[in-house]
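Why do we care about 3D structure at all? Because function follows from shape, and shape follows, mostly, from sequence. That is the central idea of this module. The next example makes it concrete: a single protein chain, its amino acid sequence, and then its structure expressed as tokens.
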Amino acid sequence: MTKNMMKFGNYHAVISYDPEIEMFRGEFVNLNGGADFYASTVEGLREEGHKSLDIFLEECQKAGIEPVKHYSGKFMVRVSSKVHEAAALLAASEGKSLNQLAEDALLAAIADSDEKYALAA
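And the structure:
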């Protein structure tokens, strides 16, 4: 598990520290809405995270909303013109499209991460 991520079943929350209130904050990611929680201990984060997620899922069910965000496979990436040019040249030299080069780089980063995120088929 990465240093700043907690897993609650199939759901992930990013954990950060808020020095102003001297508490940890968890925020669920990949949801169709916001769900966060606060605690001063790891045990407290787990407890509050489960509560927050349960409430979020319950509200989604009541409203008939799919709780999990779905991804289209398309997103905009902004880079400097120099990076764009270098990437285009590299892709061409490898006989790849710029999209394929970017996907390969993302897959390599995922494979090298502490957490091996499952890729849905």
